[in-house]
## 1
Amino acid sequence: MAHGRDSHSGALDNMGANGHNNLPAPADFSGGAGRWRMRQKEGKRNRVVFLGGPLPAEGIKNAFRGRGNGLYKLRFIPRAEGFSHAEAEGLTALFITAPLPGADWREFVKGFKFMNAAAPVIVVAEREDEELCLQAMDEGADDFLSSEAPDFALKLPLALRKAAARQAGSAGRNRLENIFFENHVRWLAFLDAITDFIFITDEQQRIIKVNSALAGAYGKHPKDVTGMKSRDLLGRGLSMELEAIRRQNQKASQPVEKKINNDYYLVSIFPLRFENQDMTIYFLKNITEMRRLKEQLFHSDKLASIGLLVSGVAHELNNPLTGIIAYTELLKMRKGVEQGGEVIGKIMISAERCKKIVENLLTFSRQQALSKSFESVNDIIDRTIELRNYWLRLGGIEVVRDYGAVPTLFVDAQQMQQVFLSVLINAEQAIADARPPKGRIVFATRFDGAAKKASVTISDNGAGVPEQIADKIFDPFFTTKSVGVGTGLGLSISHGIIIGHGGSIKVGRTEEGGSRFIIDIPQRQTGDILKEERLEKT
């Protein structure tokens, strides 16, 4: 009777009392029936050792000869001491008797399987013994036979082939298990690489899987979190909110925006049926920054709409203002109005001032393609200040014009006005935050003939720009102002405009602690301009 097994276990430091320890394993050994087929194809013989005894050697040889003449090379070793390192190396299979003369057969099987696990081991006992069979399997034997069985010798080749086939199947399963394990480890690595929060729960809201991002957010390792109730990790309030969202989205997940602590998350929940068990996958994506950018873009779009509205209003105001100025001129030309001449003059000055403001508004709000021409930087600054005169007077801010002799520069006047206005508004807000006794903004212009560049310095006595954020203030959407006060786009756009003109803009601090913006604009020669225009056309 034969007793098979699918796998073996156990290891030993030595082979038993015979002293044959550290037996070498074959160099390249796939094991089982596959190895036999390879040996047949290569014309090699399978080495089979029968260790112990007594065994019917002639009957066994005849049995194997009948299964394939020349296919097997059989060797009979009566005692354990005769089994050497050379015998173990490259062995196809080992039959071992129990008891084993010269050694404990159990220790020998364990040691041989440890050193040469690919070769099947079949234990042969004198009688059918179930307890002995179980012991053999526990020590790593692949099969068990009784020498008392009828036609014992004839059964040996078949038993060997079955053991080899089982060993090959076990090796295949081990390879599959290794593949599954590697895929599992790889999947966990993919999961942990995702910075968004992901976790999976069962029907009792116990956490089955969680990625490192979520576990780390609560100061834990994923292993420590697995098995916990979601409420124990996330808190009862958030856990109940997620459960409510899950119940509302039983069939298809509809992303829900949720505020968790101080951040906003887009929560997606997916039902999962796996191995007859209902599970739920939770995916929480942090959209705090995306939400802020969305609000800033919305505000920017609103500002663009206001610009269009201002343009329309300015156009409507421009027509009656033109009429007021024209009729005021006619009044001045009439005889008999000398007494009211002073009043008419004031009307004329006020109307012309209104008309200038309207013209500046039209210039600033006009959306047009880049159009460079030779312009006076000092004049552009004057027009910019004129736009903010009302708010400057309202805030009690003094504007100092420290103009130098600066030649005309080849610039887009509208864009340069946008830059100066953006810096001016920032200065106003900084002064409002600092609340000095008297607000002061200085526009200074200079020209460096050697470097062929004009410099515009805009200084204030406001709160100043902290050093730790000085390198960030030109980043898009970066702002230190509260919601609704600034968009974080003004200085970023200004930086782009100055760079587009081949210049530079940088920020520093004044001795009083306020901000100092230094804008350098190169002087372009006519030859350079014509060359640039030719390149643009080509």
## 2
Amino acid sequence: MFARTILTTSLVGLCIIGAGMATKPKAHTGQDPVLNPTLSHTGQDPAPVRAMGSTALTTTRLITGLARPVQVVAAPNDFDRIFIVEQRSGSTGRIRIYNLDSGTLNSTAFLSLSVSTSSEQGLLGLAFHPNYAQNGYFYVNYTATNGDTIIKRYSVSSDPDVANSGSGYTILTIDQPYTNHNGGWLGFGPDDGYLYIGTGDGGSGGDPGNRAQDITNQKLGKMLRINVDGGSPYSIPADNPFVGITGDDEIWAYGLRNPWRCSFDSETGDLWMGDVGQYDYEEITFQPSSSTGGENYGWRCYEGNHSYNTSGCSPQNTMTFPVWEYSHSSGCSITGGEIYRGTAIPSLDGTYFFGDYCYNTIWSFRYDGSTVYDYQNRTSELAPDAGSIGSISGFGRDAAGEIYICDLGGEVFKIVALPASGACCIGTDGACANIYEENCNNGGGTWLGPDTDCANGGCEPNNCPQDIDGDGSVGVTDLLSLIDAFGPCPGCASDTNGDGVVDVTDILDVVGAWGPC
């Protein structure tokens, strides 16, 4: 026993020396590391910079063959389905259901209704009542056959996959002087339960009627806020900013040109608005959940941060300017997006994704309430596994907070983590392929784990005889196994060199392979 203790102590010391000799020091580059500074927008996208611990992304195509999809929505706490808004097919707008568990699109539409057919018209928005599970109410924003904007409530039928098409109840009608700039988004505030409705400035170009700045008997170019539970067809929240003073009671904020795709942050309650520009700038407008309303977002006086037509406008310091803009050298029509609050990709939490319809570009950034940071062009990274993302018409999220992208050409994609490839052992003769885990498992192989590589020999028979206990690393337990078997031992695992005896040469063999193996 005493001799074994002396041998063990000596061997441990030898292992420490050997392990130290086997570790390569890192060379100093002559430059100390620095933090990546906050990136500002210069009109050119910076080279992607991946933060430590962040996850590589891609997209997977879920659906094809849709008719102009513009929005993905989930009913509250419905983790099995998403609802896709089809702007129109001919003169019919539809809501379709995609089943997440089976990966199938229902052939029967959830709802179909007649809509007007100019390029920006149709079925444009969908929002489920917060108590949808109890009352079955949902709300749509569409342009009727006469071109007017209609906000209408419907009810689900006894079949959860089909709405009661005869239950339509008109909440609000807004006259549209032109066929473009209809806005179209609507959504329930996560904090107050009120219905918010984004309206465009009425169309044409340059807001010829100055509708976005007009707050008297003019609901165009606004963010409206109404209580659909407090009246028939609605009531006015008592804390709306123009209640009791000059201004339409429904107005929550104004000075919008064409808010195309807005969203609430499900965690903070902040409101994000992608507002389409005129000739030069696209913008993202942000309203914190602490807002008491009444913001003037500047149009037609300003396009983004730049003067457009300031005749008769209020002072600049009375207006709220965008948190982000980009010029038409980078795009021509913004599509507002979503804040990621899912659980599948934790490193994305709090990241805002948005895109440009004309250039098919997808960006993301984070915002801390005063500064935009971690701005990235995600277009190449999010190239899908099938098809291509073009004419980005909308974003959306499911009940779990995962983000989807609509392509007006008929496709819907989901943002997912890029699967890690790894070495896949095929059979027992050492054959190996670097493939995804799912592909390896489906083919009956043995996957060695993410970021492993066939070049490392992990699939070769008896690849590492020094790893006596087979745990993937040569360490103290292997050394102790060798000590226990010290002496004649033909055919045993501790005889690493196969000479029939466990002795000092085997010890040196183990020490030389110390570490992952």
